[in-house]
Design brief:
Layout (H helix, E strand, L loop, with lengths): L1 H6 L6 H55 L2 E8 L6 E6 L2 E8 L2 E4 L2 E2 L5 E12 L5 E12 L6 E9 L2
Antiparallel strand pairs: 1-2, 2-3, 3-4, 4-5, 6-7, 7-8
Length: 161
Amino acid sequence: MKNRKENKLKGITLLETLVYITLFSMILFVIINFMLGTQETTKRTSQRNSIHQSTQFVKQHLDYSFQKVKDVKEDSSSFNNENGVLSLTFADGIKEYKLANNRIYFNDIEITPKNMKVTKLHFEPIYSKKNKVMAVKISTKLVSILEPKVFEEITYLAVIR
């Protein structure tokens, strides 16, 4: 009788196996959801950083231009609309900022990256007492092509020096 009790095999039952598989599946599900969420957040953060860098570049480009500009050509500029054109007189000639094909161009050179689209480029003149443009209020909106919910809008006052 003693030998029969000692020879009994001890193992895992089918019910225990199912419980282990269920627990393992739940843990795996939580880990995968966490990883996918982290990946999505990283992607959105990358898009936000890219848009922020692009808007800062546009702002710096405008600031640099307005340090060297002599005058604003009002007759060839398009003010107070979403697709503005700004013609500027420099020492070496006339150059312009414009919005075309959802990109900002300076003298026909694209200054916005391919993964962004510009939905607004608005120029509003600020006049001096002599009725001459002394500054331009510039508003622009950049939107990520990959993530349309990610965008940045800036308003900038560019003063002719």
